[in-house]
Write a structure and sequence with these properties.
single chain, alpha+beta, Protein Transport Mog1p, Chain A, 2 domains, six-stranded antiparallel β-sheet, two-stranded antiparallel ribbon, 10 helices, 8 strands
Length: 230
């Protein structure tokens, strides 16, 4: 079992992990920390739910619901404005300070179920996502999943490619910063980020062989608006 599969099992039921998941946690300190954190959260939540409500709480709640409607709406509007400002600030990579390749890796680790999905994906759907970064494919790529996603730096695309060495995630980040090729190995995955016509894109795999095959596939099949890709 790898880290992605462990995360999927942990999301499903942290209290009843299969034997392979428990064995993986014994060998992987990062996954072990995730498991402990998840179990501690559940325990804390259970403690909170067991605390009895104070006397008179029901009356106070009923009184609060009758509070002046106009003032409530004003408070809601102010809160919404603050949330919008905060969301915009933290969606900017230069403000949250997190490398964009790390954002892509975290997104894939948080949604391991997409690697196991097999959907009917059309060429039009794939090209609509590729167009975000200024690319297109004349032939249908071997895709098992394709969809949009919310990333810290804005909307992006999430595509899972099938290779002979396993599935590889292609993350499209049109709002990202274009730059030199980056590579990182962490949490049981290998990831590379490349500059695109608009923003950048990343390939994330469980092995170098799968990553290399996916990289070659895109190099031969993708067409860029201005010859800017791998």
């Amino acid at each position: 079992m790898n880290c992605l599969e462990f995360q999927s099992a942990l999301n499903a039921d942290p209290h009843h992990l299969p034997l392979t998941a428990r064995q993986h946690a014994e060998d992987c300190t990062q996954c072990a920390r995730r498991m402990v954190k998840e179990l501690n959260f559940d325990a804390s939540l259970a403690d909170v739910l067991q605390v009895p409500a104070p006397d008179g709480m029901e009356d106070r709640i009923l009184l609060a619901t009758r509070f002046n409607e106009k003032r409530r709406m004003t408070l809601y509007a102010v809160a919404a404005s603050v949330l919008v400002v905060v969301s915009v600030m933290f969606s900017m990579p230069f403000l949250n300070g997190k490398p964009e390749l790390d954002m892509a890796i975290e997104h894939v680790l948080a949604e391991p179920h997409h690697l196991a999905e097999t959907r009917d994906v059309t060429p039009a759907q794939v090209n609509a996502l590729l167009a975000q970064v200024g690319a297109r494919s004349e032939v249908m790529l071997p895709v098992s999943y394709a969809g949009t996603c919310d990333l810290p730096n804005g909307k992006g695309g999430h595509i899972v490619l099938n290779t002979q060495h396993g599935r590889v995630t292609l993350m499209l980040m049109p709002m990202g910063k274009s730059g030199v090729v980056e590579r990182k190995e962490t949490n049981g995955v290998i990831a590379e980020m490349y500059a695109a016509r608009y923003g950048n894109y990343s390939l994330i795999a469980n092995s170098n062989a799968a990553l290399k095959e996916a990289r070659s596939m895109l190099a031969s099949q993708l067409h860029w608006e201005k010859s800017k890709g791998i």
